[in-house]
Amino acid sequence: MIWIKKIIGIDYFKQSLIIYHLIFPFICWYYTINNPKESDSERYIRFATDLDWRSLFDFGDRFIALLIYPFVKIGFGYLTLTLLFSVISLIGFLTYYNLYKQKGFLNPVNSNFLAVFWLFLPSLHFWSSFLGKDTIVFVMLALVLKAIENKHYNSPLLFLFVVLAFFIRPYSVLIVLLALVISILSFAKINFKKKIAIALFMFVVLITTTLVLVRFYLNIDSAYTIKAILSQFYNNLQSYQEATGATEYSVLSTSYLEKLSIIAFRPLYFDANSFFQILASVQNTVIIATIVYYGYLFFAKKRRLNNISYKFALIAGLLFLIIIGSYIYNLGQASRMRVMILPFILYALSNLSSNNKKTIH
Question: Is residue 183 a contact partner of residue 315, using CB atoms and an 8 Å limit?
Fold first, then answer.
């Protein structure tokens, strides 16, 4: 009977995940057509429709428009493009599913629901199903985690999504590299000389890439001073707020700790202003309770992360939280950005819920 449970159980979980995820592009479509403001997705389609394809070779929004340009020209509409990006984001969820299956978390005889429940969190499926940047970065992060776990780095699919993510959100690739280097230097069993070489290489890559991004991404023509960089950074954010009407929080007046709370676990019931935000409050309460429980396992039960991939995921998730927290300005953006943070942090902490994992390897 065990083999029957194994076939039905694992297939049922995977099929449920696929069917559940493919409901969300229709929810995204309904949400967008009933929103009077132009969404990011609609703006990308407008760029692809109105602009010459050569003008779309750029970072960020225009690069997304470049990706969908041929599809728009052959007649793909908003719903069709949303379905396409939802299928792409499904790659990320199935990658996490396979990692959990590989680790034995989905064993039908001894399954671990606490570890894998986040694969069904509605907000992750909702925001990753839109035509947008979050979909590409979400898949890239899942593929990077798979490569680290399996020590297999020459996947063409991984290379493709890393390149796409770099043009869409350059800092996401830099954070991944930084987290990987920190993980290697802190936990990997390599000699001191190799650690120094890796650290120096990463330092050169970060400095060079940062200078390029400051020039082309922030459009800074003046001297590369900290004051000029920060001034242009916040001017860009203020301009984006004014252009989109997303002024729920002031970038300059909101404290950093409040921004961290916004991106980590809000909205909660006291600041929910719509039906969707009330639903998000329920989900965020569950997430808070889960993280508190993991804290109990870590501090009271002395459980530890026992694999470099878990440590990398936790470091990367925290780095994303720290950096994104510096510019978050509304609950909607916080919910979208959580697609880059929550999967990594919850995947890492899920290791604490497995049995007999009390030593660091």
Answer: yes
Residue 241 belongs to what H/E stretch? helix 226-244
3-state class (DSSP) for residue 22: coil
**Tens digit of each residue's pLDDT (9 = 90 or more) over 140-171:** 999 999 999 988 888 999 999 999 999 999 88
Which whole-number Å values give the CA distances from 151 to 145, 154, 184, 218, 346, in the listed order?
Answer: 10, 9, 13, 35, 21
Dihedral sign of CA atoms 27, 121, 161, 240 in order = positive
Q: What is the DSSP secondary structure assignment for residue 233, as one 8-state letter?
A: H
Long-range contacts formed by 103-108: CB under 8 A, 24+ apart:
103/354, 105/350, 105/354, 106/9, 106/10, 106/13, 108/2, 108/5, 108/6, 108/8, 108/9, 108/10
CA distances from 9 to 1, 102, 171, 313, 350 (A): 12, 15, 39, 27, 20
Contact 128, 289 (CB under 8 A): no
Phi first, then psi: give them for residue 191, nearest 5 degrees. Answer: -75, 165
Residue 190 CA to residue 219 CA, distance in Å, equals: 40
Annotate 97-124 with DSSP letters as a single string: HHHHHHHTTT-SSS--HHHHGGGG-HHH
Tell me the three-class secondary structure of 178-225, residue by residue: HHHHHHHHHHCCCCHHHHHHHHHHHHHHHHHHHHHHHHHCCCCCCCCC
Q: Distance (Å, rounded) from C-alpha 321 to C-alpha 162?
A: 20
Residue 274 confidence (pLDDT): 77
List CB contacts of 253: < 8 A, sequence separation 6 or more: none
Cα Dmax for the chain: 71
Tell me the pLDDT tens digit for each residue of 179-230. 988 888 877 677 777 778 877 877 787 777 766 666 655 555 555 555 655 5
Closest C-alpha to 164, from 153, 152, 172: 172
Which position has the token pair 């899942």? 142
Quick one: tokens of 191? 């000699």
Using the predicted structure, report yes or no on whether residue 293 has a pLDDT greater than 60: yes
Closest CA to 129 of 29, 278, 263: 29
